[in-house]
Write a structure and sequence with these properties.
single chain, 247 residues, three-stranded antiparallel sheet
């Protein structure tokens, strides 16, 4: 299972992406728990904490709880969305598509072309922006203006498909390789542990727990250092993680 920090970011990302600006308890649980990210108790505590800290609000309609992201939650996800692995983001988008949940249009997609100053050719620039951040900026050299115009038109039709393929081919593939490497490391560690006696196993477990605690602390320091000059972001990080980031 992942960290509580990540669960909260996933929920805020889901709420931030829906066009209706609200999701039911069943819809959120349907994604997070079906994926095995956490269990019911952790999920309940995570939702309660997000409401308590003002990142989202809850209303009861009939027998269902409906959750909406607040302006504070929108500010939080704008700072920390990059902490969510791209593979999980894609899983969320696939889930919304499967459940026919309409996405909010946050993206700006456009293409333009201009002459290449050094050759009798044209440069086509294809862009996808989201939240003022450039997700994709592709420049292609084409032989004439007719092709340049056609390429710009095609970009408006094919940009989502191209972006999805880039994610799957580059980021997701890289994540899978990392996962395979970690799995191999775990197998090697397990084999070594099996050769040790009970006392050695207990010591190894204690060392592993100490290492995990150290890594978690290192992540906190990394976030603090990165955002030290931004008090608003530091407060949000503290509220999400229930930790004082003002080191």
């Amino acid at each position: 299972m992942y960290s509580s920090f990540l669960y909260k970011l996933i929920i805020l990302y889901m709420l931030d992406r829906v066009n209706e600006y609200a999701l039911t308890n069943e819809q959120i649980n349907g994604f997070i728990m079906d994926k095995g990210y956490t269990d019911f108790i952790n999920m309940y505590d995570t939702l309660a904490d997000l409401i308590d800290k003002g990142f989202m609000s809850k209303s009861v309609v009939g027998n269902n709880n409906h959750y909406r992201i607040t302006s504070y939650g929108e500010e939080a996800i704008s700072y920390f969305e990059n902490r969510i692995p791209n593979s999980i983001k894609q899983d969320i988008l696939d889930y919304f598509k499967q459940e026919k949940i309409t996405l909010k249009n946050r993206s700006e997609i456009y293409a333009d072309y201009y002459p290449n100053s050094t050759h009798q050719e044209y440069i086509v620039e294809c862009v996808i922006k989201e939240r003022k951040e450039t997700l994709v900026n592709i420049k292609l050299t084409v032989p004439d203006e007719t092709i340049a115009k056609k390429a710009c038109k095609k970009w408006s039709e094919k940009s989502s498909e191209v972006y999805s393929n880039l994610i799957k081919s580059l980021w997701v593939a890289a994540s899978d390789e990392d996962a395979d490497s970690k799995e191999e490391d775990l197998r090697s560690t397990k084999k070594s542990d099996e050769k040790a006696n009970d006392s050695s196993n207990e010591k190894a477990i204690e060392q592993a727990e100490e290492k995990t605690e150290f890594i978690d602390r290192a992540n906190i320091i990394d976030i603090s250092e990165e955002l030290r000059s931004n008090p608003a972001a530091l407060k949000i990080a503290s509220d999400i993680a229930n930790t004082n980031y003002d080191l």
